[in-house]
Known about the structure:
The chain is α/β, with parallel strands linked by helices.
Amino acid sequence: MTAGIEGYERHISRFIETSQALDFQIVCRDFVEYLPTEKSDVLDVGAGAGQNAAALDELGFHVTAIEPMQEFRIAAQNAYKALSVKWLADSLPHLSILDSADAHKFEFVLIEGVWHHLNDKEREQAAARISSIVKRNGKCAISLRNGPAGMGTRMFPTDPMQTSELFKKYGFDCIFMAKNQDSILPNKENVKWSRIVLQKQ
């Protein structure tokens, strides 16, 4: 099984319904001002049921969405079939499906609701891989979850400062950090989120 998807197989319909009801402008409100100004290539890693990738497409970007769970990809493709999102089956940390043509291609990478599913070794590998596909001055936006497990059961603590320092090793500067934000979902009082934006130098 792909690292990070444990538990979701028990809640497929619920996850899809909940996710596709979310508003990108609310969930990713901290990231919106860091989106590229030009209609460039962006990557949504761990795209889930596709709502963020769809929103980015509707903003005019060329979107590649990567998601390991087939059920979520199919739901995304069905829900947003009128859009031009490129849906791919893969996951962090390796993103093996991206080839040499994708080196330093992306102006913006979104990693929303994923990082807490990776262990320390996988995070190191993921940071190195992200560095190889982001353009100079491109940005990577990451949400960091802490709290009891939700639908996904493979959980590891996250820390915005540690994540920032990790990416610094791979050529990124942290240009935005927000800590300990409340969840926008109901009955998640014990779940806190931090968000960071990193820029490739």
